[in-house]
Structure of Thioredoxin domain-containing protein:
Amino acid sequence: MTNSHSNQTTKLQAGTAFPVFEVPKFGGGTMTVGGATDGWTLLIVYRGKHCGRCKTYLGKLEHSYAKWEDAGFAVKCVSADPLEKVSDDVARFGWTFDIGYDLQESDMRAMGLYVSDPLSSQETDRRFAEPGIFCLRPDGTTQIIAISNGPAARPDLDELLDGMIFTINNDKPVRGNA
């Protein structure tokens, strides 16, 4: 298999501007990700309805969602799933954070994410992003970049929140940008 330029992913550099993109938002309207905001952003890119580990992870997020908001974070989740799959999951699991859907492959690649083909039509009917967790500064630059090429490796949300509160309260710089 050969790589064409459109299939290549560019690694995001710590401390640089996060790409700005828009996706449709569950419940109506659109969700803008990236760019300057009034506060910090926690962005979670999840694989989709077919992923049991994603449901567990987003369940943990639901339990800590208020703590993230109390710490000044806007919480946003996105996947390549269509509205129907997101609607089914929200109805089943009761997630209350903002969820965007129909994430485009070009945006996955701009975020530096790994992209996978489905293993079968029973899994899903489209390419999807492997997990990515980003903490974005109010100026739209990256503070934390945690990407994985598979579903089993993701940061612990309580540890991440504790670290981010410490970072914010102590005005710590972006690390790993040398």
Notes: The radius of gyration is 16 Å.
